[in-house]
Design a protein that fits this description.
By secondary structure, the protein is mostly helical. It folds into 2 domains: 70-248, UbiA prenyltransferase (Tetracycline Repressor, domain 2, Orthogonal Bundle); 252-375, Four Helix Bundle (Hemerythrin (Met), subunit A). It has helices at 69-74, 85-93, 98-112, 119-147, 149-155, 160-163, 168-193, 199-215, 225-248, 253-272, 278-284, 289-293, 295-319, 323-344, 352-375; strands spanning 16-18, 21-23, 34-37, 42-45. A two-stranded antiparallel ribbon has the order 1-2. A two-stranded antiparallel ribbon has the order 3-4. Strand 1 and strand 2 (21-23) form a beta hairpin. Helix 9 (225-248) crosses helix 10. The longest helix is centred in the middle third of the chain and has 29 residues, at 119-147. The protein is globular and about 50 Å long. The chain starts with 15 loop residues before the first strand and ends with a helix.
Length: 376
């Protein structure tokens, strides 16, 4: 449920859709700043400046030998080119982004104090995970790729949409099917749980709306690094937690506040993904934090948001008379800091995947520790 202007950088780009394939730029300097679309044609132009000031380092096609089939199925960079439509559809949903949402449901169920290891509760939780992960996160990611197609034409022109590997109408159909599927499951879960008020349906609807305004104009929250990344963090931490807790218990104000605070750590995680898109964000005027503050400052904002938030939550648990949970959470912060210095702070672009794979398991375990603390 799930679902971030300074001056324009020097960039000369012309991408032309011809028979659904993206051609490399042929002009070195362009004098107007504009973005124009037709059914078969996409042209992105940035203001004329010194071409030595900024150049996109993104390759114009996926690496033929280095592309990974696993990366393609997970929807992450370094993916191999694929012609199978179902694999392309899966790539658009970015399965690598589903686990945090699934884990959020687990945390919410744990925080409710009412989850039991019986067939009915397990079935409910699995259905809620499908709603949160494959359906609504898949909807969010496909929608985001659709509205980011001009940015991807700069940063990752070999991705399915800008490369023409999947037709426009099929992308739009996928967006609608995933959205309606997620909302339908939410309504079913409300009936199954016996809710008088369809809270899961409204959480799903609200999260879907947040996903839309995050990616789509005119609001396009992701244009602002602070608002957009916090919205993303809340979608990945707060919303699935709320769904899991509402499914098995009662969603209380203290949980709402605590998870929204925890979403500041999610803001930090979202910043990690902004570093690889600096060139495209500059060219299209998106005010991501690495663009607004520079990469050096933004990487410290990123780790600060992650670490300070978790330390603050540990302090809250200590003050609430739950010292063992607080100490457990603090112990899980230590390896995150180690990996930040080992990988992310050295080179946030080169080591972004390695850092997230190393550090984020400890963050999500900290979420579960917090959830268990709230259930007692």
């Amino acid at each position: 449920m799930s679902s971030v202007l300074n001056t324009f950088s020097s960039l000369s780009l012309s991408r032309i859709y011809n028979n659904n394939h993206l051609q490399a730029p042929t002009h070195s300097n362009l004098t107007s700043a504009s973005v124009s679309f037709t059914r078969r044609r996409l042209i992105v132009r940035a203001a004329d400046t010194d071409t030595n000031e900024a150049k996109s380092k993104a390759p114009y096609k996926a690496p033929a030998s280095g592309g990974s089939s696993i990366n393609q199925l997970l929807g992450i960079k370094g993916a191999a080119q694929e012609t199978n439509k179902w694999k392309i559809r899966l790539q658009l949903t970015k399965p690598v982004t589903w686990p945090p949402l699934v884990w959020g449901v687990v945390c919410g169920a744990a925080a409710s104090g009412n989850f039991h290891w019986n067939l009915e509760d397990v079935a409910k939780s699995i259905l809620c995970m499908i709603m949160s992960g494959p359906c609504l996160t898949g909807y969010t990611q496909t929608l985001n790729d659709w509205y980011d197609r001009e940015i991807d034409a700069i940063n990752e022109p070999y991705r399915p949409i800008p490369s023409g590997a999947i037709p426009e109408n099929e992308v739009i159909s996928q967006i609608w099917l995933l959205l309606l599927g997620g909302l339908g499951i939410a309504a079913l879960l409300d009936v199954w749980a016996g809710h008088d008020f369809p809270i899961l349906f409204y959480l799903a609807l609200g999260g879907s709306l947040l996903s839309y305004i995050y990616s789509a104009p005119p609001l396009k929250l992701k244009q602002n690094g602070w608002i957009g990344n916090f919205a993303l963090g809340a979608s990945y931490i707060s919303l699935p937690w709320w769904a899991g807790q509402a499914l098995f218990g009662t969603l209380t104000p203290d949980i709402i506040v605590l998870t929204l605070i925890y979403s500041i750590a999610g803001l930090g995680i979202a910043i990690v993904n902004d570093f690889k898109s600096i060139e495209g964000d500059k060219a299209l005027g998106l005010q991501s934090l690495p663009v607004a503050f520079g990469a050096e400052t933004a990487k410290w904002i990123c780790v600060g948001a992650i670490d300070i938030t978790q330390i603050s939550v540990a302090g809250y648990l200590l003050g609430a008379g739950k010292p063992y949970y607080a100490l457990a959470l603090l112990a899980l912060i230590v390896p995150q800091v180690v990996f930040q210095f080992q990988y992310f702070l050295k080179d946030p672009v080169k080591y972004d995947v390695k850092y997230q794979a190393s550090a984020q398991p400890f963050l999500v375990l900290g979420l579960l520790v917090t959830a268990l603390a709230m259930s007692h």
